[in-house]
Structures are given as C-alpha cells and as structure tokens.
UniProtKB/TrEMBL annotation, chains A, B:
One of its GO terms (biological process) is regulation of DNA-templated transcription. Residues 141-206 form the HTH luxR-type domain. It comes from Asanoa hainanensis. SUPFAM superfamilies: C-terminal effector domain of the bipartite response regulators, CheY-like. This is DNA-binding response regulator, NarL/FixJ family, contains REC and HTH domains. Coiled coil: none annotated. PROSITE patterns: HTH_LUXR_1, HTH_LUXR_2, RESPONSE_REGULATORY. The modification 4-aspartylphosphate is found at residue 57. Keywords: DNA-binding, Phosphoprotein. Residues 6-122 form the Response regulatory domain. The lineage of its organism: Bacteria, Bacillati, Actinomycetota, Actinomycetes, Micromonosporales. It comes from the Bacteria.
Amino acid sequence: MTDRIRVLVVDDHAMVRQGLRSFLEVQDDLEVVGEAADGSEAVSRAAELLPDVVLLDLRMPGVDGVTALREMTARGLPCRVLVITSFTEPAAVLPAVRAGAVGYVYKDVDPPALAAAIRSVHLGHTLLHPDVARVLSEGEPGADPARLTPRERQVLTEIGRGRSNREIARALGLAEKTVKAHVSAILAKLGVQDRTQAALYAVRAGLA
Amino acid sequence: MTDRIRVLVVDDHAMVRQGLRSFLEVQDDLEVVGEAADGSEAVSRAAELLPDVVLLDLRMPGVDGVTALREMTARGLPCRVLVITSFTEPAAVLPAVRAGAVGYVYKDVDPPALAAAIRSVHLGHTLLHPDVARVLSEGEPGADPARLTPRERQVLTEIGRGRSNREIARALGLAEKTVKAHVSAILAKLGVQDRTQAALYAVRAGLA
DNA sequence: CGGGACCTTGGTCCTAGGACCATCGGACCG
DNA sequence: CGGTCCGATGGTCCTAGGACCAAGGTCCCG
C-alpha cells in the first residue's frame, strides 16, 4: 500500500505516546511519522512533517492542546486534528472543536476503534458526541475557557491544582504581582467570585 | 539472567498499559507478566501471577486502586506496590500508602527513572515524597471524609460549591465564626492548605 | 505606522480567610 | 457521675487574596 495515513502523536506522557504508537503501527494503513510532548512542539512538528492526522492531547504543560490547535489552524496546516481526552464534559472539548478539531476520542478507546476514528477523520468526517454537537449548534457562549489568553489558561490550570499565587509564580517563573493580575483577569472573564470557584471551574472544564 | 523482576501493570487505559509495557520490556531485568484494567482484576491477577512488583493506577472505574491495594494487603499477597499517579497533593496518595503502597511515581516519569523505581522497591526500599513522609510520620490520619463530623461534611460540601464563609453561614443558619472554626478543623483533618484545596478534595470525594 | 491585545511588573489599599485561643451547653459512654 | 466529643460562638491577629490603578515592552494587524 503506497498511501498510508500519516499520524503525528501529541501527548506529554511518553508512556502514552509509546502506547499509541504501538496501537497504530500494527495497522497496515497507518504510520506514526512523529511525536510531540507539548503544544509548541506539536505545532512545529506538524508544520515540518505535514501529517494527515494529528492525535492531540489537550492537557500539557507549557503550550496546551487548544492553543496549539489554534496555532495550527492559523497557519493553515492541512492536518485533521483528532483530540484524545480523558474528559467527559462538553466544556473540555468545546474549545478544541471551536479551534478546529474535527473530533475526539477518549483515552480508553480500544485500538480498532482508534484506528477507525483516524480513518474516518482522514476521509473528511467529523466525530462529535451528540451533546457536543448540540451545544455547538445552540451557540452556547458560556464561561468559555477559550476566551482566556494562553497565559491565563496556564494560571487557571495551576489554580485548578490548588496552588497559591506564590506557588504559581514559582511554577511559571513569574512575579507574584503578575500572577495576581492574571488571576483578577481570569475571575472577571469566567464570571466567578474567587479562586475557589475558578478552581472548580477549571476542573469541570478539564483544565486541571 | 535468570531472576528478572516480574511486574504486573494496572491501568484502565490500554494505551497507558501498552506504553508501560514498551518501557519496561527493553530492560533486561524486568518482565511484564500481566496487565489489569481495574482494581478487581488487579487483585485477581496479582493472586494468580504473584508478581514481584505491581504498578498501580489509583483512578479506575469500578474498584479503584486504593480499594484493590487494601484487598491485596488483606490477602497477604507478597508483591510490592508502586503507585502510578497524576496527582500532586499528598492527599491523593496518602490513602494508598497507608493501604500498603511502598511508593509512587508520577505518570510523566521517564523510562530509566521508572525502571530504577521498580528495582528500588523490589529491593525493599520505600519511595515517598518528603511531604508525604512527613504527614505519615505526624500520624495525620489523612484525607478521609469519613473522619469529618456530620457538620464538617456539610460545611465541606458548601466549600465544594465555591461558597464563602458568609454564604455558608447563611445557608446553614450559623454564625460566620462558627463556620470559620469548622473550616479550620476541616483543613486540618484533610491535610490541605486552604479552602481551594478543600473544595477540590470535596469534588474528588464526591461531596460536591 | 499606529492601535490594540497580551504579558509583565509595581504600588496602594481593603477584606476575607484562617490560625490560635478561649468558653459553654448537650449528648453519650465507661 | 465525670470525661470526652461535638457544635456553637467570640476575640485577636496576621497574611493571602484581590481590586484598582498605572506603566512599559512586544507582537500583530489594519
């Protein structure tokens, strides 16, 4: 077979990338052409390798999956992006779908189903859960994490892990004052009262 | 080499099990003798295969990792259990360690470090983060919602909904001072730093 | 090229959160 | 009957959180 589907695998855990690679390489018509461990690397590898399909995790340190996805879409990269997620709420994948993902699968997908999903999106199909499709069709804006800037999302992720401003400053290499400014902006954008509510939001949105 | 360390891999995601298997099988002295996808299967496979080390995820559908661990300990199975977790708070792994785990690693561990950890626990060592070791040594019973009094659980439930002390006071018909006293007791019993972490805990514990 | 968005940082100020300490009443158990 | 635990409440004090304001640099887009 001359034209195999070329797949880029993006996940921050090497064991997950390895597992995905093992799943896919036993399929005659699929080929893993590369891996990336964060969003930034995902964009550069996608531009360099021009895969047909990108399997994209959302939660990654540094540049996350949604930001990477936006970047790929902005650059007009021709790959079809299939999100791999362990999240169950529509809020987690909605930003990704709005940013250009053509579908998503859960991390407990079995190998034949994963392969079928890849083939399906490669053919141009879209794979969405009815709940997600409905929310999209209703144009529900809501407390949309997509409206946060990339840095704000990083800070929100840390809040969702129960970190103090000082701990977040240390983790992200920022001044505490900078973190406070981001926190204030996040609270305003999400329409929540304090960091506890923001943390709960982050968990529900699958950011933490 | 005649005596390789026999390892059982327990995780609900097949791709993670596959990834772990790939990581470990390139080591001459390690052998993956089986896999399990939930806690119940983990116990039965451990009893059947008698592995030296069990790599155990905690969050699994059905019987979770801590429950499985307790069962293995109760049956006197001789295996050493190394928890694989994506949690960062001591509260997440404390129950597992109390139930008999001899250490834990994070899911972003790299292959040589994972192999080294397995060898280490196989030799009888214990691998614990200083925070976790300290909490254990202080005899802090730990993150067990059952140890909270009924009133504390009510307050924790409200915290898990993002309520302020004043709002909780109003909702439960108490003085704000009373709520603060309960909050302080809750934080101490759960071993968390502030109400945000308590709220996240409540969500994970299914109280909110 | 200028405007806007994002990121970063600092200052000031106020309040909620929480630690620590203390006290009292009721219920339960040895 | 006394001790312990739970629940309730108050006082004092300190700090983290967060609002508000300001400013500068970088990048992108019209």
